Amino acid sequence: MGVGRLVIGILCAQLALPALANGNPLYASLAEEDRARAAAAVQEALETLPSQQTRHWTNPDSGTSGFVTPQRTFKIKSGTFCREYQEAVVTPAGAEARVFTACRRPADGFWIMIANRG
C-alpha cells in the first residue's frame, strides 16, 4: 500500500473508528495509531475483498499487526449488505482472533460491527 493510500485509509478509518471500535475487544489495548490501521484494514477488506481473501496490516513502530478475512456476505431483510469476518490482532504481548459481523451503513457506506462471536 502506498503512503498516500495509507494516510487516506487511516483518515477514513478514524472517521469510522468509534463505530468499529465500539465493543471490539481486539482494540481495547491498542494505541490510537494501531486502532486506526486496524479499522482501515477492516473497512478496506469488507468493501473490496472477496470472501476468504485476507487483508494484512502492520505498524512497524509499535510491532503490532493484524489481519481481516471476510468469511461470507449476505443481505438482511432491509436490503443492507452484511459480512461475517475474522479479525486478528498481534501485539508484542500476544495474539487474539475473533469472528464478527458487520453491516454496511447505507448513508455513507461504512461497515459497522453489529455482532461479536468471540
Q: Summed up, what is this model?
A:
The protein has one domain.
Count of DSSP H/I helices: 2
Structural shape: elongated
How many separate structural domains?
Answer: 1
Gyration radius from CA atoms, angstroms: 13 Å
What topology, given as strand order, has the largest sheet?
1-2-3-4-5
Summarize model confidence as the mean pLDDT: 84
| Residue runs with pLDDT of under 50 for 5 or more positions | 1-21
Q: Number of DSSP strands? A: 5
Helix content: 25-40%
* Helix-strand topology string: HHEEEEE
End-to-end Cα distance: 29 Å
Assign the structural class, choosing from mainly alpha, mainly beta, alpha/beta, alpha+beta, or little secondary structure.
alpha+beta
Strand content: 35-45%
The largest pleated sheet is described as: 5 strands, antiparallel
Description of the molecule:
The structure is a single chain. With 118 residues, the chain is an alpha+beta fold. It has one domain (3-116). Helices cover 31% and strands 38% of the residues. It contains 2 helices and 5 strands; from the N terminus they run H-H-E-E-E-E-E. The protein has a 5-stranded antiparallel β-sheet with strand order 1-2-3-4-5, with helices on one face. Strand 1 (55-59) and strand 2 form a beta hairpin. The protein starts with a helix and ends with a strand.
